[in-house]
Amino acid sequence: MSNILFEKLFISVGIDVGADFSWMSIALPNQTFVGKPFKILHSDLNSLSLAVSKIKEAEELYSLESRIFLESTGIYHYPLFCYLRDKGFNCSVINPIITKSSTNINIRKVHNDRFDSKKAALIGLKPDLKVSLIPSELALDLRNLSRAYYDLMDSRSAYVNKLQGELRMVFPQYLKIFSKVTTNTSLTLLGNYTSPDAFLTASKDEIIDSILSTARFGLTYASNKYNAIIQAAKDAQVFGHAVSTNFKRIRLYIRFIRQYDEEINSILSDMHALIEANEESEFVKQIHLIESFKGAGFLSAVSLMAEIGDFGAFKTPKQLFAYFGLDPAVKQSGKFEGSKISMSKRGSRIARRVIHTMALISIGKSKDGSAKNPVLRDYYLKKCDNKPKMVAMGAVMHKVCNIVYAILRDEKEFQIITPEEHQKNYLKAKCDTAA
C-alpha cells in the first residue's frame, strides 16, 4: 500500500501573487478544484475577508484543514502571507522555479495568473514538496538594510565611474595622486577647486590647510600632495581638454557621491544598532559565528545570514549551494552533454556576492606576505595549474560555502585546519563513535 494513503489529507490553496492583486485556487486531495479561481485585491479589505471566508467554507464543507502555498515573488507575497498566517492558516512559500518546471496540468501551453494559481494548488498536494517559511522580523530587517546597502553602493560606483571619466578628459594626471579619487581629501579638493587653473591660482597655504583638515597625516604629507597636485595641474594644461560643463558635472557627481556616503553610513549604523539590540538572539549568535571566518567582516556576516534567514531549513551543504545559486547548471539532452558548466545563479545575488568577496580575501596575502588562509590559497593555486582562474575561484567559493555551513551546523567558531588534520580528526571521531 502506498505511503501516501497514510499522509494526512488536506485542502491545498494555491495563490499566484501579483503587485496589486493575487489569484487563489482551492484544490481537494483528489486534485479537483473547489469553484473557480478567486481574485484577491490587496487594497480591498472586503476582498481579503472574502478570500478567508472561501477557505474556511471549504474546510467546513469537506471537514479538512487547509494549507496555503504562495509563490515567492521577492517582496509582494509578504503582506498576504502575514495576513493569512495571522488569520490562523498554515502558510508556506514555494519557489517559483518549482511551479515553472512542474508538469503542465493542461496539454495546451497556457500561462496566466488564474492558471498559475491552479498549478500552485496542485503542487501543494505533493507530499515531497519543499517549502520555506518567512524569516524572522530581525532577519527581514537586516535583509532589507543589506540589500539597500548594496543597491546604494552600486549606484555610488556608477557616479564614481562618471567622475573618473570626466577627470580623464579634463585633469587625467589628478587620478594618480590619491589612492582613491573618492577619499575625503580628494573630494574636498575637487569640490573646492575642480579645474587645473583653479588649483594653480589658489594660494599654497590654502590648499595645504585643506589637506591637513581632511587627512590624518602631517605637514610633510600635505606638502608632498600639494606639489603633486600643482605638477598635475601644469601637465593638464598640456594634455587635457574641457568646456565649462565638464566642471559642473564634476561638482554634481561629487555631491551625489557625498549623499550616497551619508546614506550608506546611516544604513551601517542601523545594522549595528539592530545587532546590539538583539545580542542574545540565536540569529545574532550565528552572525558572530560567521564573523569568526577570516575574510568575513561585520557586513559580510550580516548580509550572508540575512539572506540565509533560517539556517534550519538547510539539511545539507548542497541545499545551501543551490539556494545561493552556486550549483552547476548542466546542459544535457539525449547523447549531447554540454562541456561548459557554469553556476546556475538562480539564488541570492547578494549571497553570491558576499561568498565571492570572502573567497577573494581568503586566497589573498597579508601585508607581511603570509597567506590569509593558507589552506584555501594552496587549494586555489593547485586548481589554477589546470583550470582557468574563474573556475578555480568558483571552486574556492564552494569551499567557503561549505565552511559557512559547517560553522553554523556545529555552532563553533572557524579554525584553519589542514586537510591532513581534518582527516585525522574525522578518523578519531569515527573510532570514538564505534567504541
Instruction: Order the strands across the largest sheet as they lie in space.
Output: 3-2-1-4-5
Tally the beta strands: 9
Secondary structure: helix percent: 55-70%
The number of distinct helices, counting runs of at least 4 residues, comes to 17
Q: How many angstroms does the end-to-end distance come to? A: 40 Å
SSE string: EEEHEHEHHHHHHHHHHHEEEEHHHH
Largest sheet: 5 strands, mixed
- The chain-level mean pLDDT equals 86
* Shape descriptor: globular
**Portion in strands:** 5-15%
Structural class: alpha/beta
Question: Summary?
Answer:
It is built from 17 helices and 9 strands.
Describe the protein's topology.
Blueprint: E1 11-17, E2 21-27, E3 38-41, H1 45-62, E4 66-71, H2 77-86, E5 90-94, H3 96-101, H4 113-124, H5 137-170, H6 184-192, H7 196-201, H8 204-214, H9 219-238, H10 244-277, H11 282-291, H12 298-308, H13 317-324, E6 328-329, E7 332-333, E8 336-337, E9 342-343, H14 349-362, H15 374-384, H16 389-410, H17 419-434
Parallel strand pairs: 1-4, 4-5
Antiparallel strand pairs: 1-2, 2-3, 6-9, 7-8
